[in-house]
Amino acid sequence: MDGDSVAIRPIDFVRDEQPLKAFLGERDKMRLSHAEAALRDGDCFIFVAAERGVPVGWAIVHLRYREDQDWDPDENGRRYQSGDNAYLENIEVTPRLRSRGLGQQLIRAVEDEARRRGKRHLWLHTSENNVKAHQLFERQGWQHETSMYPSWKPDTRMRIYKKTL
Ligand SMILES: CC(C)(COP(=O)(O)OP(=O)(O)OC[C@H]1O[C@@H](n2cnc3c(N)ncnc32)[C@H](O)[C@@H]1OP(=O)(O)O)[C@@H](O)C(=O)NCCC(=O)NCCS
Questions:
Q1: Which pTM does this prediction carry?
Q2: What atom of ligand 1 comes closest to residue 102's alpha carbon?
Q3: Residues 6+ positions from 89 with CB-CB distance below 8 Å
Q4: Rounded to whole angstroms, how far apart are CA atoms 156 and 149?
Q5: DSSP code of 95?
Q6: What is the span of the domain harbouring residue 154?
Q7: CB-ligand 1 contact for 76 (6 Å cutoff)
Q8: Run of H or E including 44
Q9: Residue range 97-124, pLDDT digits in tens
Q10: Beta carbons of 71 and 20 less than 8 angstroms apart
Q11: Which terminus of the chain, N or C, has less C-beta within 10 A?
Q12: Confidence at residue 1, expressed as pLDDT on a 0 to 100 scale
């Protein structure tokens, strides 16, 4: 892969949905399907990393909480999607292209876009054992706020990270 062959750009839902679903897990495929209406209404945005036009990574950010999401966040989870807060629900790069800087580029793109949309704080949950993700976010200036067992995933200890934009 050379640097010019991968571009970070907003999703084109019609063109990108199937190629994204080719590498996403079942739960994330569902997240993508459920995001279509939110995207249309301007309540979320999605960036893709595209290799010669074909998505090989994505990041999805919710700007406003909606009842039609596929998960039911607790009170804090809703707070992370209101006012000047936005929520990075998922970021993933296809395994073949990890460790080449695409995750970092996606994070920078979503931070810029959230700022452009008037947000001041970005939040995310990630598993306590996802060390690769912790290192990546911390290098990008995200802070580990706390760890907890969320109501929507009570068996998994999760970290909450915050980035002030
Ligand atoms: C977390 C995830 C998105 C990171 O994506 P990525 O594209 O591998 O991220 P980056 O390449 O920017 O950074 C990862 C590593 O590559 C290294 N790297 C970055 N650019 C590089 C380059 N040009 N050449 C070599 N290494 C590079 C970074 O130093 C970093 O190393 P480190 O983790 O040891 O500190 C990816 O691992 C993934 O999809 N994981 C599964 C889903 C997930 O866990 N998502 C996060 C929870 S919401």
A1: 0.94
A2: 7
A3: 31, 44, 60, 61, 62, 124
A4: 6
A5: G
A6: 3-164
A7: no
A8: strand 44-51
A9: 999 999 999 999 999 999 999 999 999 9
A10: no
A11: N
A12: 53
89 in contact with ligand 1, CB cutoff 6 A: no
Can you read off the two tokens belonging to residue 11?
Answer: 């999703």
Q: How many domains does the chain have?
A: 1
Predicted confidence (pLDDT) per residue in 51-94, tens digit: 999 999 999 999 999 988 777 777 788 899 999 999 999 999 99
- CB of 69 sitting under 6 A from ligand 1: no
Among 47, 88, 99, 134, the mutation site with the greatest number of ligand 1 atoms within 8 A of its Cβ is 99
CATH of the domain at 90: 3.40.630.30
Exposure string for 118-146, b = 16+ CB within 10 A, e = fewer: ebebbbbbbeeeeeebbebbeeeebeeee
